[in-house]
Amino acid sequence: MQAASISTDTILTPRRLVLRYPKLGDAAAIFSAVKSPQFPERLPLKEMDTVSAVETWLSRLLENWAARQGYSWIAEERNTGKMTGQVTLAKIAGEQVWALAFWTHPDFWGKGYATEAAERLLAFGFEELGAQKIWAGVGEWNKGSIRVLEKIGLQHAWNNPKGYYSRGEPIASREYEISRQQWQATTRK
Predict the structure, then answer these.
(1) Along the 189 residues of the chain, how does pLDDT read in single tens digits?
(2) pTM for the complete prediction?
(3) What architecture is domain 17-187?
């Protein structure tokens, strides 16, 4: 089944954020975030060592959008316009299964922005993309992101000893998921 075509003009507006289509011009701000000493060393984004590498990564996000294989948004504070992070839904194997991914600039940790953006994308995935299931993987070490996933209703499904790779090393991850039916049951409470 072909994923929905989503306009690049699509802006999502959770309570305190604006989620907008990424631009190559965002590369310097993203590079600043991933090069922050607080940005986790174990995230693959930390491996991007130049603005050009970030532009290449952004180009892939834009290509995925055009191919209807993934939709990524830059998260900005509604009041200031400052970039707080990025959030993505990417199509994965299976009938209408999407992967949720997100990161937050360390300057904005602890403010609930990741939860707000991820929760909005969860709704977008089920309501606009027709997702039947949304999945997310998170490094076992990443307690903040684990809390975000659990807060928005994803359930721990399994542990993966080689969940992803960073700097050539496998990183154990916790895998989470939520079905359309589970999401609908939690949003109707």
Answers:
(1) 556 789 999 999 999 999 999 999 999 999 999 999 999 888 888 889 999 999 999 999 999 999 999 999 999 999 999 999 999 999 997 678 999 999 999 999 999 999 999 999 999 999 999 999 999 999 999 999 999 999 999 999 999 999 898 888 899 999 999 999 999 998 865
(2) 0.93
(3) 3-Layer(aba) Sandwich (3.40)
| Token duo for residue 20 | 């907008």
Structure-block tokens of residue 183: 């999401």
Tokens 């507006």, located at residue: 13
Q: Scanning the structure block, which residue is given the tokens 């790779």? A: 165
What long-range pairs does 26-34 form, CB within 8 A, spacing at least 24? 26/58, 26/74, 26/83, 27/51, 27/54, 27/55, 27/58, 28/54, 29/83, 30/54, 30/58, 30/83, 30/86, 33/83, 33/85, 33/103, 33/105, 33/106, 33/107
Give CA separation, 86 vs 27, 91, 93, 118, 125, in Å: 12, 17, 23, 10, 16
8: its two tokens: 């690049």
Report residue 11 CA to chain centroid gap. 15
